[in-house]
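go over this record:
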Amino acid sequence: MQLFIFSFFFTSVFCAETGYLFINDFHRDEAMDMEVITDMSSGGFNFVSNFSGRITTKYIEKEGGNDKFLQTWSNIISTFKRNDEMKINHDAQKLNGTQYFIYADSTGNFSREGVDDNAKEMEEQNTAFMYFSLQGNMLFPLGSDSLHKIGDTWVVHNEDHLTEFPGFENSDTNLIDNYVYTFDKIKKKRGKEIAYISFDEKITMNMVSQTWDESWKMDVVGLLKGKIEYSITDKKVVKCKVRGTIKGTGIDLDDDSSISFYQNMDMICKTKLK
């Protein structure tokens, strides 16, 4: 993974002279509930995928200069639907009970390893779902290590390779991702100070994918919008919502015919502190 951070600052009236650092207090254990729904049309078919699950992150100890965590998947339900035909996404549901050790350095960059053979086998599924849940950096979940005031905007550029992607049963994807974050406002919510951040995301992908009996090679562009609630009090992202469309054109690998598709994607993540 390559991560490049650029910051652009705009003048704004703000009560704090120094601004806020959106940092993750990763010593506090958390449980994040995730739900992802995709709705895709191609040819005469309509494909719908549903995924929901919980990922629990516990801080373990300092080890070799890095911070060590244990992540555990539970409560996973996942299905695929093509027109009126439905089936269980057994690959995703194999994540249930899998555990991963996370080793994060002082910058928040991390490596991950499965605790057992089953977890190692499921790492590709794990990576795909975690990619869209602000898990790119353990320390700076919004990609910036700078102080920000209301009205500030910053850009995060990411390049990655995914071997799974939400909405497809199998995928081999080269991905370029650009986020433009905006610090919108601060409000009190249930006695806590919450920062509200919005973002626009553009994804460009070259992918080979398989869903049901269809195999496609495609060029894909996605335009997504998101809203984030970051607890200044707890130093945690407590809610993230993403919605948008992904469009692609390419060829059907079975008969070399031209194909196009249009996919809606909705995701919501809510975090509870333990």
